Amino acid sequence: MLLDANAGHYQDDELVPAAEPHAGHAPLDAAAETQADLSAEIKAIGEAYAQALKGGAAPETQPRLDFAPYRSSILRHPTKSLHHADPETIELYSPAFGHQDVHALESDLTIQHNGEPQGERIIVQGKVLDGDGRPVAGQLVEIWQANAAGRYIHKRDQHPAPLDPNFTGVGRCITGPDGSYRFTTIKPGAYPWKNHLNAWRPAHIHFSLFGTDFTQRIVTQMYFPGDQLFPLDPIYQSIVDQDARDRLVAKYDHELTSPEWALGYNWDIVLSGSRRTWTENEAFGDAGDEE
Amino acid sequence: MSKLTPTPGQTVGPFYGYALPFTKDNELLAPGSPGSIRLQGTVYDGAGEAIPDAILEIWQADSEGNVVQRTGSLVRDGYTFTGWGRAAVGNSGVFTFTTVNPGPTEPGAAPFISVAVFARGLMNRLFTRIYLPENEEALAADPLLSSLDPERRSTLIARRDADGGLTWDLRLQGGNETVFLDFERFEGASQ
To answer: Closest to B173 (Cβ–Cβ): which among A5, A79, A87?
Structure first.
């Protein structure tokens, strides 16, 4: 069973502090900031950004590292500018992953236990591309998520929603020659957190991605279309540009929907441009598996 | 210039602990095997407090300076060096890897380990480098290090421990903030 291989790490999870615990039964104290307080801050930042755009500033494409409405970021963002550097040698390559690393069944999060998980079964499929549109072939994709009730299996998740004995919420796959990935899973629920009073995260799936260059490495979150929590969420709103935010939202795809089985969502991921000099074989997407 | 706009990053959040770590994730070599060293350090926030919920990845050449392209990092066989590892920090903000001293990837180049950093509260991953402290001449000639003032430069150079290991602390913010790298050639261009 997949869980057994990682059994040792469940104990490690106890080391994760309760600094940002999910809401339990205890109400926050009266001094807690309200959603209205946070929304006003988010709105002011958004208006300043709109003004900057009108003034000719380039659209932003990444989250701001310094985004105070996400309170945990205040002491965790660099205050000095990132230093521009040319990637050198090792940075122009990525670690190699293959089918030795990941079993094909790890891409189906609904078959990791004896029974069927609760919730809405979904297929999430897309391609990993580099900034020039080249498929990223034979690379590792990792995902993790809450269950249908909005509960992570993580021990420090204190949200009083039910755990699902048939759902762990962890998946992996290796991209195909065309950069494609595909997961079968359960649509995650929204969940509360304690950034402020009545803070709720929009439903999301965490994605971890590698490119052909280590400098393309990203971890991000995929969201679902039409979520009413988008305007309220400091993490989603840390990306101040609407076009950039939209790049994190999957599209419902009825062609991908499997009759009598699962709803389909499509989400392509674009990494930054590769700086490698490409051979023809690499450019056409040879899988990286040596075994 | 890139034709497609990259997908934005997002924070790794607080709940990666049951997903990203795996057995022997931080053991690029088995501890105690010939040539292995310990690489350790602590991750700090802007108040100087250790961060208990960060996760680091290292990616490096082998001891001869070769870039390794071998699979098997996630299911380590105990003898294949893949050059890549992952370590979640513990309760006291400390991370530990078992690895080798990377060799120079080009004659005369200063060897370094590439690092990606993720943390709850960190909106997007950060990149940095860990240089070996030896070979002053190569360090002085390094294009990145020579572009930094001495105080900031020192944040990228590990200390050599008495047992042959390396110690390198990471500060996300503050007076001695680690130098983080931006590899985007065109970022900030307004045209």
So the answer is: A79
Based on the structure, what is the number of domains in chain B? 1
d(CA B13, CA B77): 30
Say which residue the tokens 């001869």 belong to. B64
- Judge whether B109 lies within some domain: yes
Catalytic residue among A22, A70, A172, A191: A191
Domain range enclosing B144: 16-171
Nearest alpha carbon to residue A173 among A264, A262, A62, A98: A98
Torsion sign (Cα): B20, B21, B22, B26: positive
- Active-site residue, A191 included: yes
CA distance A30 to chain B (A): 24
**Alpha helices, DSSP H, located in chain B:** 136-141, 150-153
Answer whether A131's CB lies under 8 Å from A102's CB.
no
Whole-prediction pTM = 0.91
Q: Tell me the ipTM for this assembly.
A: 0.95
Say what the alpha-carbon torsion angle A246, A247, A249, A253 is, to the nearest 10 degrees: 110
Closest CB from B8, B90, B184 relative to A239: B8
pLDDT digits (tens, 9 = 90+) for A35-74: 999 999 999 999 999 999 999 999 999 999 999 999 999 9
